[in-house]
Amino acid sequence: MDAGVFRAWIRSAAEVIEANRDRLTQLDAAIGDADHGVNLSRGFSAVLGALETAAPGTPGAILTLTGSTLISKVGGASGPLYGTAFRRAGRALGDAADVGLPALAAALEAALAGVQQLGAAREGDKTMVDALAPATKAFSTAVAEGAPPRAALDALAEAAAAGATGTIPMQALKGRASYLGPRSVGHEDPGAASTALILGALPPLLPPSLPAGADDDGTLSRNGGIRRDRGREGPPRRRRGRRRGGRR
Ligand code: ADP
Ligand code: MG
Predict the structure, then answer these.
(1) Cβ atoms of 88 and 73 closer than 8 Å
(2) CA-130 nearest atom, ligand 1
(3) What is the pTM of this model?
(4) Ligand 1, atom 9: closest residue by C-alpha
(5) In angstroms, rounded to a whole number, what is the distance separating the alpha carbons of residues 245 and 242?
(6) Nearest C-alpha to atom 4 of ligand 1 is from which residue?
(7) Sign of the CA dihedral 203, 204, 205, 211?
(8) How far is CA 219 from its chain centroid?
(9) Closest Cα partner for 203 from 235, 166, 174, 244?
(10) How far apart (Å, rounded) are the C-alpha atoms in residues 107 and 92?
């Protein structure tokens, strides 16, 4: 995955945050101070501007700039936490022009470690960690088992989404929601919800993994699988080439 994929990810994450701004703010209204959607929407639009202006050329530099911008533009708890996550991930990727699955897994591990170091939340505390930790685990496992890229990213996104809804019955032990004590039970954590949205923006940027036994592109394009799931920018050219090369 090259800089084009990472730029497309951040752009797509910004769009999905914008589209869900009110929902995130409502979640935060229930157990916080009703600013999470607004905070992130402001932050990600600043990120898009910064990426446009500075035009960082590597995946690592893109994530690092994303993180620094979130830290400087988003107040509250989530700005520094998301900012740290993206900066740690960016630092872990170094200046590689192309990022493979193991490097991305290591970057996610670094992001999670950064969030936990800063916020001291553990799984079960009803925070973004409850989406990020299982997602990171599922992705690392999928990569270790040799899953193809899209399948590994699907596992990441699905675990994040399940982790976010899994916060509903939890009582918050960290952050503003913890002030509510038992009254925080019964609501999805806004930061876990936004984490699921941000990670969920990643898989559609790659073409779906071919099911075992699928015959050439025909099978998938006939049922619409590839076209429907393709990200706005389509899969990176390099991957198309590689797959063609491997199949003929
Ligand atoms: P604030 O709580 O300052 O208003 P936001 O509303 O933007 O900030 O973000 C709230 C989210 O931040 C929570 O839903 C939770 O997921 C996350 N959060 C808060 N404190 C922590 C923490 N210590 N560790 C991890 N995540 C946290
Ligand atoms: Mg808030």
Answers:
(1) no
(2) 16
(3) 0.86
(4) 78
(5) 5
(6) 76
(7) positive
(8) 30
(9) 235
(10) 5
Mean pLDDT for the chain overall:
88
* Nearest C-alpha neighbor of 37 from the set 51, 55, 18, 15: 18
Cβ contacts of 222-230, under 8 Å, gap ≥ 24: 229/204, 230/204
Q: Hey, what domains does the chain have and what are their CATH numbers?
A: 3-206 (1.25.40.340)
Query: Which residues have a Cβ under 8 Å from the Cβ of 63 and sit 6 or more positions away?
Result: 6, 86, 87, 89, 90, 93, 107
Q: What is the mean pLDDT of residues 170-199?
A: 97
Distances (CA, A) of 49 to 16, 55, 150, 185: 17, 10, 28, 37
Task: Identify the residues whose C-beta falls under 6 Å from ligand 1.
Answer: 28, 32-33, 35-36, 39, 76-78, 81, 115, 119-121, 127-129, 174-176, 189-192
User: Position of tokens 């952050």?
Assistant: 175
Bigger pLDDT: 238 vs 211: 211
User: Which residue has the CA at smallest separation from atom 20 of ligand 1?
Assistant: 175
